[in-house]
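Input/output pair, single chain:
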Amino acid sequence: MKKIFSKALHILVDILIVIVLIISTAVVVMSVSSKSTGVPSLFGYSPLSVQSNSMVPTFQAGDMIIGKISDENTQYNVGDVVTFGVTIQGVNTYNTHRIHEITQINGETCYVTKGDNNVLVDDGYRTRSSIVAVYTGDCIQGGGSVMDFFGSQLGFFLCILLPMILFFLFQLYRVIRNLIAYNKAKAFEEGQAAAQTTANLSDEEKKRVAEEYLASLNVSGDSQNKNGTTRGSDVSDSNTKE
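Output:
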């Protein structure tokens, strides 16, 4: 029963490790991609956290929406929900609203946007270069709050860094445990081999091994006696000189 529980625990830990590695890899990839696209993206799609209720009932604050990254061939139409760069109180950020109108200004196509829950259209116009993604219609309720937590220092530590540290320590424990088990098994095999070798010796060979061992003990004893006699002789000579 204990062995089954231990095996099940190892399988569960391995599954959690794989999940953490997948999340960590996705976070790294999206962080790198955000430097080129402006928003985090993975395989051409960007998960975005909704920060306000300006698009209710389409989606609301705390939701996570998926946008397809735009390129030079992307066509925009009235009714499309797009993500575009804006500056709010001196801070560069992104907003996701619906295209309300398309117009031409000095030969350039410009877009008027508006939140579904807003009465007035947004200030200014959007150009093709300012639009970074088009909403796919996929929305995960509450996913934006989770995404924001992952992006915080505490969330990164608890959900990414700490599991990676625990993963490293667990793998180190596994290596040490397997090494100890290997050494024990090897010592047991060597002991078995030595016992088997001794069992295969003839009576004469066993007797010879025993005699050689006793002889080595006698040689060691004679050497000790010789050293003791020499020290006694030195003392005698010293007394004679006095």
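The two ends are 82 Å apart (CA to CA). Residues 101 and 142 are 30 Å apart (CA to CA).
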